Amino acid sequence: MKITFVIGGARSGKSSFAMGEASRISGPKAYIATAEALDEEMKERIERHKRERGDEWNTFEEPLKITGLIPDLAGKYKVVLLDCLTLWLSNSMITNADVKNEIEELINTLRITHYASRLFIVSNEVGMGIVPENRLARLFRDLAGDLNQKVAAVADEVYLVTAGIPIRIKEQNIKN
Asked: Which residues are catalytic?
């Protein structure tokens, strides 16, 4: 499985870039959405994104259990797009999960899943701003930074997207 990791700030264009790249690949497509519709604005946002993806994509709404879902979908779909890791991290923190263990399980899943699928993973870069003023926000920033570094290490290619411009920052010569 070839892994493409797309990272950038909020509203940087990272999800649009990942979707565009993934849509170019023919075959069945799966979209793992980690967002939850907890208010009306988010419900509308999620519905709009579903319409934009169209019928070509099967959507799987999974805010927490992505480590079991990725291998399952990678065996059935040619393309899997996971959007987004930082929402998954936030969801995990809210449930008081053992987040460090969850991160390690995800990284192990990414290392051992070998299918013909392409996996695109989207995440927020949260380490380029100011140091948060409270402990929980600093913990989130630190965990997100650790998560992003570990995913980038196992990814075959990594893009940083800023102002809608993707910049490839890692590439390995992997056929697929």
From this structure: 49
